[in-house]
Amino acid sequence: MAQANIMCIKWGTLFGPEYVNRLYSGVRRNLAHDIRFMCMTEHADGLHPDIEVLDLPVEPFAEPMAQALAVANRQGAMRKVSLFKPGLVPDLQGPVLGFDLDVVITGDLAPIWSMAPGKIAMRHDWTEKRKGRPTGHGSVFRFDPAVHGFLYDDLAANPYAEVEKARGSEQRYTSHKGMDRDAFAYIPEPWVVSFKYDCNPFPTNYLRPPTLPDEARVVCFHGRPKMSDAVTGYSGSIIRRSKPCSWLADHWITRTKDDLGAQWA
């Protein structure tokens, strides 16, 4: 069975190492492959020793990219493009399944890993779909560095124009680049769900705890609340409220402790 390449990126201090460790545990518990798990970061302290650390680079096009992001009021929002650099990991072979850190793995990842070979795969973004636009959502993404090097090369060649065209959105840039080259596929929507839209929607969030959809394999905590908020309950606004979430505590914390040990969870 082929090795599964997994990548994430952690920069700054918003997410601690436990987010990476819990993601690593969730992936290896839900994907029946040998796992090569890589994290690009400038802060590797606290990461499980089986996690391969990639240095967070300063890209040669960082300045014009930052200028365009500032105009779009989305500074730092396209750091993930560094994961797409051809030859980033010289001995890497095959596709990569990437995750943001604000996700929780709750089911079998094999169908996402194996779907649509040769395509960039992302779920349709919830808000963009509602507005009739085709943009993918960036929390879960699969790509092949040997096939999709244009994701890095196009931005490196013309960073200001590409960021401006994507209106500062990494997920819009990535998904539309794939679509333009007929190299994109949507991950089926029931497999990647939103905590706030699919698990804990208003107004039923006032009446019952969050629910986990039967087919969910990844739960995305985009926006608020994040996992650390939702575990014990959250009261952020009239709409964004949640009762304590037992299944989140189980998948995100308890199973990681059982898998890696309490010191890594």
Description:
- 31% of the residues lie in helices and 20% in strands.
- The protein has helices spanning 17-29, 62-71, 110-114, 126-130, 150-157, 159-165, 170-180, 195-199, 227-230, 246-260, and strands at residues 4-10, 35-41, 52-55, 96-99, 103-105, 120-124, 136-143, 184-187, 192-194, 218-220, 234-235, 241-242.
- The strands form three sheets. Strands 3-2-1-4-7-6-8 form a seven-stranded mixed sheet, sandwiched between helices. The protein has a three-stranded mixed sheet with strand order 5-10-9. It has a two-stranded antiparallel ribbon with strand order 11-12.
- A hairpin with a 5-residue loop joins strand 11 (234-235) and strand 12 (241-242).
- Helix 2 (62-71) runs parallel beside helix 6 (159-165).
- The longest helix is centred in the last third of the chain and has 15 residues, at 246-260.
- The radius of gyration is 18 Å and the shape is globular.
- The model has no long low-confidence stretch (mean pLDDT 95).
How is this fold's topology laid out?
Layout: E1 4-10, H1 17-29, E2 35-41, E3 52-55, H2 62-71, E4 96-99, E5 103-105, H3 110-114, E6 120-124, H4 126-130, E7 136-143, H5 150-157, H6 159-165, H7 170-180, E8 184-187, E9 192-194, H8 195-199, E10 218-220, H9 227-230, E11 234-235, E12 241-242, H10 246-260
Parallel strand pairs: 1-2, 1-4, 2-3, 6-8, 9-10
Antiparallel strand pairs: 4-7, 5-10, 6-7, 11-12
